[in-house]
């Protein structure tokens, strides 16, 4: 089959996806702008939004993302991946649009919130020409992949822009409502980006598109953006070095880190998610340790396999047992509870709000990581607010300082806050807005994991991070390859 010429927009995006640490962002790239203008769009009507938003949303598992096989994919596998992506994204975008439209009008009118609403409308308009059809040729798959690259680019700074919009509109909406809405919107965004980025990565690591980049040659354990041989200790070491250097720049000292347990343990997960979570947890541990004058005391990190998921009977689910935790729509932002509160439907949820599934139908290995510090613990008055977005409690002076980008100490915009988050949100857009723990918890809970905090006031803090993996990846992916 003749080779298909790939639009340059896709190349710039997939390079950023595969090499996030070594290449700069390309938000303002003229290639991206020209590529976006070439996309075929269709006008989004209210009927389109209501019809798609009425469709049921089901929780996403890591197994869904690896089921198409291990790269390089065959042509049929690649087309199957594209059609799977197309089958689930339009409804998810429509849910987000409807959720934004249900906000109080004066909030939606804010330029920042309105921009995000327009971005979602734009992305849905690029998907509608593909809706209710099947991608059958490589030429169509290449054009669809350009749509995915545009979607990833368009929503790069969604959460930080929304946060600033809510900060400006804080007089017209309660802080708790902002927290609920952002938490839900943030979780939904995780899945949308992950689905799009997974297909982008599979596209460029598979035949017949493998002349651009052979990711599988350098990273044989990868299936798209998922590392099936992820070693948590390696992520911890990298994050500890990064946070340690910044800590030393700010305070002149850094704590040491001791890794124990099973440092050679591996499982399958999304590296960028784990990296973000560990970075945020270490930032808190390092800061507390140094400011408490305990920098000579090491931060202890214990890595242990998470018990396998053995129960498939919903009636036997024990909510106190993390090994039996299910994935539900609330964890993934699919319930739309927050937006319904603004329409007088408090307590109302979407038709799929109560759906929950096991991460896999068979046992799913995962990991537990404990981070223990001697930083004096969390005061009782602050312990109940550690999951809040701190910007929701800013006074007028703090809000003005943050909006203007001032590096004032009371906004928290210091070196330890200025670390970019996943999904494009960078240093200047996230610093000082208090995203760390709530965003980290969202990434942990998205696939059935979680974060638990135990604080001994006056002594220190233990944080327990649990993550579920993909499971028996070879058994998932190989049948797909054999059928082709």
Automatic annotation (TrEMBL):
<dbReference type="InterPro" id="IPR003594">
    <property type="entry name" value="HATPase_dom"/>
</dbReference>
<dbReference type="InterPro" id="IPR036890">
    <property type="entry name" value="HATPase_C_sf"/>
</dbReference>
<keyword id="KW-0547">Nucleotide-binding</keyword>
<dbReference type="GO" id="GO:0010906">
    <property type="term" value="P:regulation of glucose metabolic process"/>
</dbReference>
<keyword id="KW-0496">Mitochondrion</keyword>
<dbReference type="GO" id="GO:0005524">
    <property type="term" value="F:ATP binding"/>
</dbReference>
<feature type="region of interest" description="Disordered">
    <location>
        <begin position="305"/>
        <end position="330"/>
    </location>
</feature>
<protein>
    <recommendedName>
        <fullName>Protein-serine/threonine kinase</fullName>
        <ecNumber>2.7.11.-</ecNumber>
    </recommendedName>
</protein>
<feature type="domain" description="Histidine kinase/HSP90-like ATPase">
    <location>
        <begin position="269"/>
        <end position="471"/>
    </location>
</feature>
<dbReference type="GO" id="GO:0005759">
    <property type="term" value="C:mitochondrial matrix"/>
</dbReference>
<keyword id="KW-0808">Transferase</keyword>
<dbReference type="GO" id="GO:0004740">
    <property type="term" value="F:pyruvate dehydrogenase (acetyl-transferring) kinase activity"/>
</dbReference>
<comment type="similarity">
    <text>Belongs to the PDK/BCKDK protein kinase family.</text>
</comment>
<dbReference type="InterPro" id="IPR036784">
    <property type="entry name" value="AK/P_DHK_N_sf"/>
</dbReference>
<dbReference type="Pfam" id="PF10436">
    <property type="entry name" value="BCDHK_Adom3"/>
</dbReference>
<dbReference type="InterPro" id="IPR039028">
    <property type="entry name" value="BCKD/PDK"/>
</dbReference>
<dbReference type="InterPro" id="IPR018955">
    <property type="entry name" value="BCDHK/PDK_N"/>
</dbReference>
<keyword id="KW-0418">Kinase</keyword>
<feature type="compositionally biased region" description="Basic and acidic residues">
    <location>
        <begin position="315"/>
        <end position="329"/>
    </location>
</feature>
<keyword id="KW-0067">ATP-binding</keyword>
<keyword id="KW-0597">Phosphoprotein</keyword>
